[in-house]
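Morning. Coffee machine broken again, so started the prediction first thing and wrote up yesterday's gels while waiting. Chain of 125 residues, entered below exactly as on the submission form.
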Amino acid sequence: MRETLNRLGLLFLVALITYGSISPRSSPVSAGGFPAHAVAYFVLASALLVNFHDTKKGHLEAILAAGFLALGIEAVQAFLPYRSFSLIDFGVSFAGASLVTLDHHIGLFTKFMEFEDRAIERFLM
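Came back before lunch.
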């Protein structure tokens, strides 16, 4: 049950970020500028980390997956008349995703997983 919820949450985040990034309308990510990019990709990398597990390899995989999504979205934006390719946006997005490595030292990921376990047990079991 937990893995299914994690994957659905991850798919929702990817869809939300992708739609907000290629939509002709202004989105929180595009309207918020650099901080919104960093936060969006930090949240995405965190969700990826939930699926890749809290290991050194999992951190690297989460950062690279979020980075490749950011680069892919920027590449698509190059072909849209109302968007433009920006290495700065990609860099900020990648930096935001990279912040997830700080979690290894702070322990927020572990605390979130414990909270998620308690919530699942309480509300879904």
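The radius of gyration is 15 Å. Going to sketch it on the whiteboard this afternoon.
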